Amino acid sequence: MTEAEQTDEDDERGLEDVSKVFVLGAGLMGPAVASDLVKHRIADHVIVADIDPARAAEAARAAQECAVRPRTDRQGTGAAAAAAPAEVRCEGMALDLRDRRALVEAMRRVDVVAGAYPVAAVREVTEAALEAGVHLCDLTGSAEGFDIFDYDEEARRAGVILVPGCGLAPGLTNALAGQGASRLEPPLRGVLYVGGLPQDPRPPLGYRLVFSIETLLDEYVAPSLIVRDGVTIEAPALDGLEEIEFPEPVGRCEAFYTYGLGTLARTGPEMGFQELSEKTVRYPGHRDKVLFLRQCGLLSQQPVPVDGVEVVPRRLTAAVLTPLLRQGDEADVSVLRVVVEGRKAGRTARVTFEMVDFYDREARVTSMARTTGYTCSIIIGMVLRGRFGGPGVAPLERVFADADRYAELREELARRDMVVTERTDG
Asked: What are the start and end residues of each CATH 3.40.50.720 domain in the chain?
């Protein structure tokens, strides 16, 4: 069957019967989104698009395998996971996001767009989704000079749901902060700890790349947004250093400010938070090494002359660090802890959510791809089922303040062996 014939057949069956999702980006996270959509039959038809046609085709091929190959569970008990029926269809396509006409045309074929593209493209993709009249679930939802809330009214008029930051952080951390806040009267303080760590840390930084080097360096340079005294302010990245302990085999770590609050930088004060921050978790000593690089100007974007040639220090640093940060086993671990403090029944109370997730050796999927990509695909499924309510911008901290929606999210995470534990003190 040709693509045109398949599209005609889909159209005859109607959107009630055929759900279609467009995954934009086949880098580190897009393939995880696509595979989970197929494996759990969240969508009947998945299209993976990338500027590199070979990369898009490979991501689609790997996702399609999930439709026909059952897997044992990760605990090795031999219990087979239910595979999606073989008729679930996944295809790859070449697409340049700078081609607005082609982008909008492709979007009009689907129900939901999953955004796994570079952060710099968020404005163009958001505006294209509104033009196409399609829901958008974006992994970041933010960029310098971009405010997703500026598009709320337009999204409502277009009947479109815009879900910003629906990965791990921003994403799951926001959902947990929103649920924690809903249990207090009101919430007063919150800290979101999250990090992706190598199981076998190696020098010089005790870190291994689990996403792009540019995204990593941005975390260490871009000002962090935090809430202090009920007001959102900027704080230097890498400030707020503290020690934090996770269950073995992770153990002792450190945490410091980065810019991962996402929409909580806007909604946090509205929800009652007086103090709120997001902190990246790394093994001890990492922050001081990165701070040294920054203080030496090696993360600067300002060109400097070297032997008559203009060199951007940050680009040089990225080129030098990339091979070093790709050494060793790709096995990683993701750690998350969200702590919300406030008042309940007139007394001080604290709600703590925690998750530790490990690399999937059988599927060869990093924990960072799992926790980011699978969270996104779960959210896409909820959008497709009408669980996000009406159109407009839908911050996860608002959506998952609802106990039933949160219970559904937690259950779906557990189906993927991503277990969120809870503890309430006070």
From this structure: 3-117
Tell me phi and psi for residue 277, to 5 degrees.
-155, 160
CATH classification code of 3-117: 3.40.50.720
pTM of the shown model? 0.91
Neighbours of 369 (CB within 10 A): 29
What superfamily would CATH give domain 172-363+419-425? Dihydrodipicolinate Reductase; domain 2 (3.30.360.10)
**Sign of CA pseudo-dihedral 391, 386, 168, 104:** negative
Distance CA 60, CA 55 (A): 9
Residues 182-225 pLDDT 10s: 999 989 999 999 999 999 999 999 999 988 898 899 999 999 99
pLDDT digit string, tens, across residues 17-55 = 689 999 999 998 999 999 999 999 999 999 999 999 999
* Stretch (H or E) spanning 11: helix 3-13
Q: Fill in the DSSP letter of residue 329.
A: -
Q: Name the amino acid, one letter, at 365.
A: V
